[in-house]
């Protein structure tokens, strides 16, 4: 059995590397040696070593609240983090404990990992899994991660494994002067895994990669809201800010396809995942995301597919809504006349700009209220973000 498990880990590592993760030798060695199946005891070992996110806890509405993240994005974020031997690392979001175990392997016996989670059940399970895996060097705490853990500060590295809307002051205060923090940062409803370092009087990104994580709860909960439209099919609409929403009217609007606009744009799925949603999020206050589980059929021609379901994006206003679909690889907009025309125009503009995404994206985080220059400025409670591209979009 040991040889079979080693083979599964090697197979997963090859897969992750093919997708751009585990470029750091320490990250690769951690994936090669840490037994993921022990952190997912309810799965068969072969299922545990698939490159998939595994939901481990859901709320009363069936929405996921904890998971073991997809190994590829875990590896990419660990590459971004650049932790080394002897480093002290703070992790926000314990999950199954697997990421903490990878970190403990990376920092070695001279390092230390502190993992914090708001959910006591998650903390208990992570501790059990870490013990079963024989993983030392990790402390798991039940607390609000927004406060960090000053007792063990300063940290050489801080990483969040939950989607964060803001940069908590406690994290920045508890990071060593030459430290680095990696967070799945919310940019008006879309997330990018961003690695920040100090740059004088503010923070600047060193890299940004597309990602998707469950949102952080507690003191730093953001304004994003999720509306369950159909419980039985897992049809969910996500808005970057809370607003009154008549879910029955939305369902009726989804059935209204009075306008159908062919755009002539034929991107690949990664360009869609990385580029178009970000384009809409920073430019368009009406944008939303829509997804359904594999039990549904409304989004059968949606542009984004995953084993667990499908997803698309669109615009929603008082005139109705419009969503993006795909026909023979070409993006097609369907819905009410005005939002459909506007959405198609955005897709054309994105195409004309060279389909920009995370490549070349720079994010500077300043104290709130700081006078800044920039076309794309996002104000949070604790920081003011300025987004720019090496090749300017728009």
TrEMBL record:
EC number: 2.1.1.77
Keyword S-adenosyl-L-methionine annotated: yes
Compartments where located: Cytoplasm
Keyword hit for Cytoplasm: yes
One GO biological process term: methylation
CDD domains the UniProt entry points to: AdoMet_MTases (cd02440)
Top-level enzyme category: transferase
Domain of life of the source: Bacteria
MF terms in GO: methyltransferase activity
UniProt cross-references to Gene3D superfamilies, sorted A to Z: Vaccinia Virus protein VP39
Keywords from the UniProt entry: Cytoplasm, Methyltransferase, S-adenosyl-L-methionine, Transferase
Family membership: Belongs to the methyltransferase superfamily. L-isoaspartyl/D-aspartyl protein methyltransferase family.
Protein name: Protein-L-isoaspartate O-methyltransferase
Record organism: Actinophytocola gossypii
Organism lineage string: Bacteria, Bacillati, Actinomycetota, Actinomycetes, Pseudonocardiales
Gene that encodes the chain: fxlM
């Amino acid at each position: 059995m040991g040889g079979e498990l080693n083979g599964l880990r090697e197979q997963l590592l090859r897969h992750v590397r093919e997708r751009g993760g585990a470029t750091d030798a320490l990250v690769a060695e951690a994936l090669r040696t840490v037994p993921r199946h022990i952190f997912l005891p309810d799965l068969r070992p072969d299922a545990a070593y698939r490159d998939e996110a595994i939901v481990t806890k859901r709320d009363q509405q069936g929405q996921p609240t904890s998971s073991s993240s997809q190994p590829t994005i875990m590896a990419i974020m660990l590459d971004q983090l650049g932790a080394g031997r002897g480093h002290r690392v703070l992790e926000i979001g314990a999950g199954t404990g697997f990421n903490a175990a990878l970190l403990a392997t990376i920092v070695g016996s001279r390092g230390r990992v502190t993992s914090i989670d708001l959910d006591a059940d998650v903390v208990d399970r992570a501790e059990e899994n870490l013990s079963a895996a024989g993983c030392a060097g990790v402390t798991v705490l039940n607390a609000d991660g927004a406060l960090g853990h000053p007792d063990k500060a300063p940290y050489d590295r801080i990483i969040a494994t939950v989607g964060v809307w803001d940069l908590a002051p406690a994290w920045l205060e508890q990071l060593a002067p030459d430290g680095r923090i990696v967070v799945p940062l919310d940019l008006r409803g879309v997330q990018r895994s961003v690695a920040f370092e100090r740059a004088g009087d503010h923070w600047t990104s060193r890299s940004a990669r597309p990602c998707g994580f469950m949102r952080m709860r507690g003191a730093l909960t953001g304004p994003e809201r999720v509306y369950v439209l159909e419980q039985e099919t897992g049809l969910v609409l996500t808005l970057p800010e809370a607003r009154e929403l008549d879910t029955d009217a939305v369902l009726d609007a989804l059935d209204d396809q009075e306008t159908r606009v062919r755009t002539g744009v034929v991107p690949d799925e990664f360009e869609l995942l990385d580029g178009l949603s970000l384009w809409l999020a920073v430019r368009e206050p009406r944008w939303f995301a829509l997804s359904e589980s594999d039990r549904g059929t409304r989004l059968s021609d949606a542009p984004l597919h995953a084993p667990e379901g499908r997803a698309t994006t669109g615009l929603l206003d008082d005139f109705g809504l419009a969503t993006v679909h795909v026909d023979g690889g070409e993006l097609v907009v369907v819905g009410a006349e005005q939002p459909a025309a506007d959405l198609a125009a955005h897709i054309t503009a994105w195409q004309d700009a060279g389909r920009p995404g995370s490549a070349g994206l720079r994010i500077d985080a300043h104290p709130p209220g700081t006078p800044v220059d920039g076309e794309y400025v996002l104000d949070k409670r604790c920081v003011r973000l300025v987004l720019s591209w090496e090749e300017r979009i728009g």
